[in-house]
Structures are given as C-alpha cells and as structure tokens.
UniProtKB/TrEMBL annotation:
<comment type="similarity">
    <text>Belongs to the allantoicase family.</text>
</comment>
<dbReference type="Pfam" id="PF03561">
    <property type="entry name" value="Allantoicase"/>
</dbReference>
<dbReference type="InterPro" id="IPR015908">
    <property type="entry name" value="Allantoicase_dom"/>
</dbReference>
<feature type="domain" description="Allantoicase">
    <location>
        <begin position="188"/>
        <end position="324"/>
    </location>
</feature>
<comment type="pathway">
    <text>Nitrogen metabolism; (S)-allantoin degradation; (S)-ureidoglycolate from allantoate (aminidohydrolase route): step 1/1.</text>
</comment>
<dbReference type="InterPro" id="IPR008979">
    <property type="entry name" value="Galactose-bd-like_sf"/>
</dbReference>
<dbReference type="InterPro" id="IPR005164">
    <property type="entry name" value="Allantoicase"/>
</dbReference>
<feature type="domain" description="Allantoicase">
    <location>
        <begin position="20"/>
        <end position="169"/>
    </location>
</feature>
<dbReference type="GO" id="GO:0004037">
    <property type="term" value="F:allantoicase activity"/>
</dbReference>
<protein>
    <recommendedName>
        <fullName>Probable allantoicase</fullName>
        <ecNumber>3.5.3.4</ecNumber>
    </recommendedName>
</protein>
<dbReference type="GO" id="GO:0000256">
    <property type="term" value="P:allantoin catabolic process"/>
</dbReference>
<keyword id="KW-0659">Purine metabolism</keyword>
<keyword id="KW-0378">Hydrolase</keyword>
<dbReference type="GO" id="GO:0006144">
    <property type="term" value="P:purine nucleobase metabolic process"/>
</dbReference>
Amino acid sequence: MQHNDVRRATLPDLASRAVGGSVVFANDELFAERENLIKPEEPVYQPYTFGHKGQIYDGWETRRRREPGVDHAIIRLGLPGIVRQLVVDTAFFKGNYPPAVSVQGCAVEGYPSPEELAAADWEELLPESPAAGDTRNVYDVDSDRRYTHVRLCMHPDGGIARLRVHGEPVADPRWISGTLDLAALENGSQVTGCSNMFYSSPSNLFAPGLTRVMGEGWETARRRDDGNDWVSVRLAAPGTVHWAELDTSYFIGNAPGWASLSGCDARTADPDDPGSWTELLPRTRLQPDTRHRLKLPVRAEVTHVRLDIYPDGGMARLRLHGEASAAGRAELARRWFNALPEAHATAVLTGEAGLTAQRATQLVAQRPLAADAALPAELAALLT
C-alpha cells in the first residue's frame, strides 16, 4: 500500500459519536432519527419491521417533499479538523434515497445553538453531487481549513444511513497545557504508517475513552512469517513521552505477546530510515485483556513514535503521556491558526485576544505562518 493510501485509510471519522460527535439539528426526521447518521457501527436492516410510520430504518429519513427545497442536518464534529473525505452511505435505502447530496462546513467559537449555526459562515465542501442508493458514496474533499461543524443536505429528500467525515484532527492549543496524551487524536496526532489493518483501523488506538468491544481497537491478520506488526504516529506536538499505556482490553486469545516503543525526531532525521529511531521502551511482555502502564526508561524529545507488536494481534488503545516542548506548542499553535477559516480566525483575535478589527485583519493576512517563524505576540498570549 502506498503512503498516500495508508494516510487516507487511517484517517479517523471526525463526526462519529465514538469521538464525541452530535447531530444538533435536522429540519425533518419523520421516518428515521437523525442521530443514526453518526453511529460508529455499520448500518443494519431487518425486513418487515414496521412501526406506526412505516419500515424502521437504521439511518436518517425525511418525509416526501411536496414543495421545492432540500432537507438538511447539522453535525457538530467530535474532532474539529480538516476534512479530506466524505462517505454518504445510503445502505438499504433503495427506493427512498436522495438522488444528490451536498455538504458544507463552518467553524465557530463555543457551543452555538442551531439558530446561531444557521447564521454562520458556511463554506462548500461538496457541491451538489449525484448519489446512488444502497451504496457507500465516497467523495474526496480538497480543503485545508479546520471546521467544527458540517451540514449534510439531501436534494431534495430521502434517507441516508451514515455520514462519515474522514479527516485530520486539528487541536485548539488554548486547551492544551501541562502533561497530556501526545498520541491522542483529540490533541491532533495522526497515524503515519501501519503494517497491517486487516480487521480495523490503527487510528482506533488513539480514540477517546476506553473500548467497549474488541472491534473498537486495532487488530491485524495472523502472521505466517518471522516478522512483526507495527504502527507509527505523528505526535500532536514534538515533546517528551514520560509513560505509556498499552491497553489490550477485550483481546483475550489474540493479544500480542510483547510490544516495544521507539521514537524519531523528524525535524533532524528521516523517519523512513530505520537507523533514525531511538528505543524508548524495550520489548516488553504483555498480558491479554489488560491495561499496562509503563514508565519509559529512555526519554527523548521526538515527533513520531512507533509501536511494534510481536508477532501480531490486537491492541485496544495506546496512550503516550508526556509534555510538549515549547517549540512543539508553538508548532501546534501555527497549525491551528493557519487552518482556521478567515471568519473564525478573525473572531478569535477580536474576541478572546481583544484585538481591533484592523489588527486582526493584519494578522490573518500574514497566514500561513512559516514553520520556523515566531508566533505573533497576540497569538502567543492566548496559550498562557
């Protein structure tokens, strides 16, 4: 699998209920509830299960429109970030699917109401595009902006089983300080490589919360050679890992026998060069169905960490607790500020930062901030 394919395949679903997503509004949900859109599990169907309003569907379904217009639902992303791919899954909707869909995104401060969101600055992520019934309709998105909400539109009405919003989480640095999980998706980490993802995505390793079943972790196929499986992650920010949690919960007959951790600083070395990785945790025995908490004997500032499992199997979660360096926090802030839509960036600067509209406009116009550029003083002040 090519590098770009790995990256696309491991992108988390930013909208999933499993990471805190919520469907905050739908203009109509007469036949089937809007909340079904972001359920993490795949849709199911049971024939001849009728309620008072008709066949019960595992999805969102609106009544038949008798006037011009579109039906829409607004989803608050559990992981605000850059949207790379949309999946509009119409599974089991065969005679009642929308013939076309579109998606918009917006970025706002705080926790707006549906009425406030209706007045937000929405930007096109997916123009009105054809959709097929009983199909995973996949649409790539060309965007470099960080959104907090998306709006799914059906043209004109119908039913959709699931909406998947795959992308790159971009953390808000104003909420990150002190010791943190440098590998957490909600802090902005990203899977960069993986040997095998036969049963499930390695991004599950870094999702919020504990797993409830084996399928919510990362599991590889059974190996029939002398190698081992691994996954690498770009940390939320360059920093030092103090201790790790290797969680094999629910993996009883298929947990790895051992695991090790290594780190690399991609600012000064090539992660593709095996010689650039430093061992952080030597090969350590694991127990099935257990949360292992392990202090790292080697502590070095790194940008990437690689988990090796021996020989194969499944892991529920990987937590890497430590501290972001000063340079790492600045990098995180640049990534966030550069990705904000213009209206949101201006609102942050004129709101919490207290800048004049003129000064805010000047700072927004300076983007993108270069990787080695010092943070503007007004932006740096937000991080203290």
